[in-house]
Every structure is written in C-alpha cells, then in structure tokens.
Specification:
mainly beta, Outer membrane phospholipase (ompla), Chain C, 2 domains, twelve-stranded antiparallel β-barrel, three-stranded antiparallel sheet, flat, DUF3078 domain-containing protein, signal, DUF3078
Length: 350
C-alpha cells in the first residue's frame, strides 16, 4: 500500500493541468466546465452572473467623553452580467445599481450612494482575442443630490440631471470573462440635464441657460480587470478615459471604480468601494467617494458543475484490482507492473 501511495504521488506531481475521467480513461485535455469553451477562453452560450448585497454600518455613543455622533448607514447594490458567446459573435451586458442612505443624530437622512450604470457591447472576433466592437453606456442616478454646506441646502443633481448616454465604435481585447480593454476612437456622448432648476449655463457643460443637453464627439479608452487576491478575497476594478475632440481634447474625463470584496461565507461579506472622477464639466477638482460596509451578500451564476475528476474518484470510490504481471507500453499511456491500480483509470504521460 505504501508503494501505491508513493507511485501515485510521483505521477500526479508531474502534471500541471487537471484530469477528468471519460469513458473509463483519464483525459488530459479536459474542460473545466461542461459548456464548451470555443472562443479564446470565453464560455460558449450565455454566461449569467449576479451579485446582490445589503451592507450596513452603525455607531452609537453614550456618555463617551471622547465624543461622537450616533449614526447608521445602509447600502444596497445590484450587479448583474449577461454575456453571450456564439461563434465569432459576443454580446456583453451589465447592470449596476446602487443606493445608500445615512442617518446621523439630529440631522435629516441623507443619501451616500446613488448609481444607475447600464452597459451593452457587441463584438465580432477577428482573431487573437481581438473584436470589432460597438458599445453603449448609460449613467444617471435615482434621486436628488444636495450641497449640505449651504443653508438652505442647494440641489446640485437629480434623476436625469445629469445623465450620460454614450455610443462608441472601435476594437476590444477580451481574452476571457475577467479581463478586457476597450479602444474606441469614435465615441459620441450626450449629457442630459432634464431638471429645469439645474439648466443654467456651465452646469454639466451646458452652453446656455435653458439648455437640456450637451453633445460631445471624442475617443474612449477603457479597461476592466477582475481577479482573486486569495481565497475569499476578490477585486473588481474599471477605468474609463474620454477625450472630447470638439473642445479641449487634452482635458480628459477620467473615471475609476474599484470594489474589494471579503467573503465571510456564502451569505455574509464585507465590501470596500472606491470611486475617483475628474470631469471639468462638473467641477475642476478630483471627486472621491469611498464606502465600507459589512452585510448580506448573495451571488449566483449559471456555470455548470465541474466534471468528476480523478482525484474525486480516488477519494470517493477507491475500488482496487490487481494486474498479473502485465507489460504494456503504448504512446502516451503506461500501466504499472505488479501494483494495484484504480478501476477504470489510466495514467496519461504528460
């Protein structure tokens, strides 16, 4: 028995890829999922993923000499992706919604997060993970935003004020579902300000009082990278850069979004979100938003279960049989002489 364990350890240590059992044999070119991965690492067919989270933070003080204000904050987030791969055609869609409120003692409830972000892009594979691409993006918010430093509070934003609708043409580099680069040298962007209280000259780039929209033609460069730092900790970040050909193209709009997710278990996680934005049409300063919370989290996807691996069979069904002094050497296959082997298992030489 000791010989068997030593031989199996040596054999498995020589492999750098997974093996699966098919028709009684161990296959070295196995797929990770039952769905075929035909197009440069992307899953053929629909890949649907979703993340729903409800995060909260709270602080309370009683006779605390160092001081402090009782407060409570609640943030809800919805992040869905619907990605289709069909032959050389891909169609990626993402819905990102977020809303948060914060309540401090002796103050009115205020919002601390407000996002509506819809993305859709089509690509045609031209080889080596490159795609001819057309993309659409829509951004706005759910409710009014105020400057609380003034008395009375001043309204500075609202639903559809502003709202941004962009269309872009160019190429995308998408080697897999977790990484992409977007190069769109022809991109139109329309800024809408549909709240009459905010339709003043200079507000979000408006040229005149009473205008409700503002048109831009330029270039867009974007990127997204999702990765796992370690077990239970992942990071998802996006970067977007837009330059307006028609007016001061050197003054680029830059937006960055990052989400660090700490998974406690299937339903509980902690999240840290960071947003950076520079847009001279809004304010000639870098805007920064950071949120931290712990709460309930539910993720789902339609990835099929993995195939049964040789290691699983070793662990779950150790059925042994003895071969009587057989000597068989074939291309890419060997059978160990005078040693008990697992039933219906062949070791394939790398």
């Amino acid at each position: 028995m000791k010989k068997v364990l030593i031989i199996l350890c040596v054999a498995f240590s020589s492999y750098s890829y997974a093996q699966t059992v098919k028709d009684g044999n161990v296959s070295t070119d196995s797929q990770r999922f039952l769905k075929e991965k035909k197009l440069d690492g992307r899953t053929e067919g629909w890949l649907i993923m979703g993340n729903n989270s409800l995060l909260f933070s709270q602080s309370a003080f009683s006779n605390w000499m160092a001081g402090g204000v009782n407060s409570f904050a609640l943030n809800a987030n919805v992040d869905y992706e619907f990605n289709l791969t069909q032959g050389k055609h891909i169609w990626d869609n993402r819905i990102l919604l977020a809303y948060g409120i914060q309540a401090n003692k002796d103050e009115d409830t205020r919002k601390n997060n407000d996002i509506i972000d819809l993305n859709s892009s089509y690509g045609y594979n031209i080889g080596n993970n490159w795609f001819l691409a057309a993309a659409m993006n829509f951004k706005t918010q759910f409710s009014s935003g105020y400057d609380y430093a003034t008395t009375p509070n001043t309204k500075i934003s609202n639903f559809m004020a502003p709202a941004y609708l962009s269309f872009g043409l160019g190429v995308d580099y998408k080697p897999n579902d977790n990484f992409q680069v977007n190069i769109h040298p022809l991109t139109t962007r329309v800024t809408f300000v549909l709240d009459e209280d905010l339709q003043t000259k200079g507000s979000y780039g408006l040229k005149n009082d009473g205008d409700s929209s503002f048109f831009e033609l330029g270039a867009y460069l974007g990127a997204r990278y999702k990765f796992q730092i370690m077990e239970g900790i992942s990071y998802d970040n996006r970067l977007g850069i837009f330059a307006n050909y028609l007016d001061k193209p050197q003054n680029m709009d830059i937006a960055y979004w990052g989400l660090l997710d700490f998974k406690v278990n299937r339903f509980v996680s902690a999240q840290v979100a960071v947003n950076l934005l520079y847009d001279e049409n809004q304010i000639m300063k870098t805007q920064v938003k950071q949120t931290l919370g712990i709460g309930f989290n539910y993720k789902f996807d339609n990835k099929p279960k993995e195939e049964t691996t040789a290691l699983n069979i070793i662990h779950e069904q150790p059925i042994l049989e003895t071969l009587d002094h057989q000597k068989e050497i074939t291309k890419n296959t060997f059978i160990l002489k005078d040693e008990p082997l697992l039933n219906q298992t062949k070791l394939i030489i790398q």
